[in-house]
Amino acid sequence: MALSTAKTNAGESLHCSTFASRYVRTALPRFKIPEQSIPKEAAYQIINDELMLDGNPRLNLASFVTTWMEPECDKLIQASINKNYVDMDEYPVTTELQNRCVNMIAHLFNAPIGDDETAVGVGTVGSSEAIMLAGLAFKRKWQNKMKAAGKPYDKPNIVTGANVQVCWEKFARYFEVELKEVKLREGYYVMDPEKAAEMVDENTICVAAILGSTLNGEFEDVKMLNDLLAAKNAETGWDTPIHVDAASGGFIAPFIYPELEWDFRLPLVKSINVSGHKYGLVYAGVGWVIWRSKEDLPDELIFHINYLGADQPTFTLNFSKGSSQIIAQYYQLIRLGFEGYKDVMQNCRDNATVLREGIEKMGYFDVVSKDSGVPLVAFSLKDTSKYTVFEVAESLRRFGWIVPAYTMPADAEHVAVMRVVIREDFSRSLAERLIADLGKTMADMDAHAGKKAGHDHPAKKSVHEIEKEVTTFWKRLVAKKRSSMVC
Against a cut of 0.85, is the pTM above it? Predict the structure, then answer.
């Protein structure tokens, strides 16, 4: 979540009022609780008017998060929005639905459990919490092993690619674990398994592989990583395990890439997280973390409470939270079934193909995403001498599209790309419209650049200059939200 401030944009008042003044004449303070209550109609109108300045979630192509669900599921969410998920004794059916989801997902990921056995896992707020829990389990198991061997246990590390999301950096910083990153290189934007295996040492609590990189949607080669680590473990006597961050790809690979070995079929994969609110097709925020077996989750991390009416085991970073997303996940799993999810994912992949081909035909861009992986299209400019992807993204917003532009991590910071995520609600007609609007944008960019003819081309920007440009772009974008009515 973003840190809050009590600072307004230039020219903005510290008070707010709208035509809700037909209900109340006194302007309301922005950052202090008003002295008096106001009519419910006025409160609704004031908030609703400000929210009109937000973007349209359906046109937010930066986000992997689900922005549409069926009305029946919306009804279930509304009906359960006041249930506290943690109160298992009061809401036993909700707890049962969570357990069913855990078992369904565990079987989907080929966990070594029988049909009558219970899987080990838990629902979380999202993949960030799931990763924290999985990381803690790895850290505690490693510490226990090192203590038993009489060895130091104060310098644990995790090996990842530089393409990991910030939640891994948070885990490392919050729980005092060194993050050893495999750097990227131009043309190869995921973790190199061979380099990852080389970086592993006795203090490595796990290697984290990404099934669906945020940068370009690519699946990392978990099978090769498993084989390399197995060989190194046999040589050294270590037992370095793997965690798969399948936040984006966990609800994709089983349905359209069933032959791909990335999950519990690989013996070193001990835990997997997945985001239900991404391709699990549920509104934010729900995630899941599944362990291979009970032995992979240290019992000392599980708390038992009885002050809600019965003994209740819990392993979460937070406590109270709503039940609605858990219920929505169960709805999607039984509503769609295997074939339904497969249809949705194949349709997303087909629409991504339409978009990729349309972008390639323009001739302006190099597509850096892969044909297989998360259904998205990431692309960079072939010629950056006249304008940048940040300027293209900003210009594209006049049509309502929110397309992110960003630089790659180390050591590929000089590569700047745009990315379009294809979700269930991004239809083929929207893909065709985006292609048309992007074509208009590029024609306008060329015309604008032509007016500057005769001027020297700008010198190639340094990494620092590119990072500064990214920061300036997004700051300007946020500021524009306060005055733009584009949705």
Answer: yes
Residue 487: per-residue pLDDT: 28
CA dihedral defined by 59, 62, 68, 73, rounded to 10 degrees?
Answer: -160
**pLDDT, tens digit, 9 for 90 and up, residues 299-313:** 888 876 654 455 566
> Where is the domain boundary, 301, 332, 363?
332
- In what order do the strands lie in the sheet containing 204-210? 120-124, 287-291, 269-275, 242-245, 204-210, 157-161, 178-182
Query: In 402-455, where does DSSP find H-type helix?
Result: 428-450
* Tokens at 111, concatenated: 């966990």
In a domain, 182, yes or no: yes
One domain, residues 46 and 170: no
According to DSSP, residue 400 is labeled T
Tell me the C-alpha distance between 49 and 18, whole Å.
Answer: 8
**Residue whose tokens read 């300027």:** 391
Q: Is residue 345 part of a domain?
A: no
Q: What is the DSSP letter of 475?
A: H
| pLDDT for the residue 478 | 53
Q: Is 348 left (phi over 0), alpha (psi -120 to 50) or beta?
A: alpha
> Does an H or E element contain 133, and which?
helix 127-148
Per the structure, how many domains does the chain have? Answer: 3
Which residue in the block uniquely carries the two structure tokens 């037909």? 22
Give the Cα separation of 333 and 39 in Å (integer).
Answer: 42
Q: Give pLDDT, residue 38.
A: 85
Q: What is the pLDDT of residue 117?
A: 87
Could you give the strand order of the β-sheet that contains 365-367, starting from the edge strand earlier in sequence? Answer: 365-367, 376-381, 416-421, 405-407
Q: Where do we find the tokens 């081909």?
A: 357
Position 138: which residue type?
Answer: F
Q: Are strands 269-275 and 242-245 parallel, antiparallel or unpaired?
A: parallel
Cβ neighbours around 371 below 10 Å, total: 10
Give the total residue count for the chain: 487
pLDDT, tens only, 315-343: 888 778 889 999 999 999 999 999 999 99
> What sign for the dihedral angle of Cα 243, 248, 251, 256?
negative
Which DSSP state fits 120?
Answer: E
- Domain identity same for 288 and 363: no
Look at residue 483 in the predicted model and tell me its pLDDT.
43
The domain in which residue 156 lies consists of: 74-332
Tell me, yes or no, whether 301 lies in a domain.
yes
Contact 278, 64 (CB under 8 A): yes
